[in-house]
């Protein structure tokens, strides 16, 4: 097994065993849109269209449904009133967290089984991988 395959297997194991129990029915596409808004500054409907490889009209319909659920807001750009940017609501942040993060109690229980050196190694490995991932082109 290559390192990439091993890392993917470890990641799926981590998520399977440590994920938060989902409370709402929400599509993967909605989560991806919400992640885009969370992880990038000044996200527009065009950015959503690019992420999903759909027309701006289709992206606008997706965004409209997420706004209706109370997870996103449209706001005018503070420096250019012609631009509309998307923002997560508090409810949207909570839903996104529940659907993309690990359960902190379960994660802490796993960390408690490690030595301080093992915890430091895991923390440094995740920090480094996260840092390098941010420099990759992805959506």
UniProtKB/TrEMBL annotation:
InterPro entries: HTH_MarR-typ, MarR/SlyA-like, Transc_reg_Sar_Rot_HTH, WH-like_DNA-bd_sf, WH_DNA-bd_sf
GO molecular function terms noted in the UniProt entry: DNA binding; DNA-binding transcription factor activity
Keyword field: DNA-binding, Transcription, Transcription regulation
Domain HTH marR-type: 1-131
Gene3D superfamilies per the UniProt record, alphabetical: Winged helix-like DNA-binding domain superfamily/Winged helix DNA-binding domain
One GO BP annotation of this record: response to stress
One Pfam match: Staph_reg_Sar_Rot
UniProt protein name: MarR family transcriptional regulator
Organism: Rossellomorea marisflavi
């Amino acid at each position: 097994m290559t390192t990439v395959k091993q890392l993917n297997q470890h990641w799926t194991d981590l998520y399977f065993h440590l994920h938060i129990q989902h409370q709402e029915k929400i599509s993967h596409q909605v989560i991806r849109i919400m992640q885009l808004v969370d992880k990038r500054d000044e996200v527009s409907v065009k950015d959503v269209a690019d992420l999903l490889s759909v027309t701006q009209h289709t992206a606008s319909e997706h965004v409209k449904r997420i706004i209706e659920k109370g997870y996103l807001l449209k706001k005018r750009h503070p420096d250019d009133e012609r631009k509309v940017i998307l923002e997560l609501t508090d409810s949207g942040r909570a839903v996104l967290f529940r659907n993309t993060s690990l359960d902190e109690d379960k994660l802490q229980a796993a960390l408690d089984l490690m030595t301080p050196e093992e915890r430091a190694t895991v923390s440094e490995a995740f920090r480094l991988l996260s840092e390098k991932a941010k420099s990759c082109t992805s959506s």
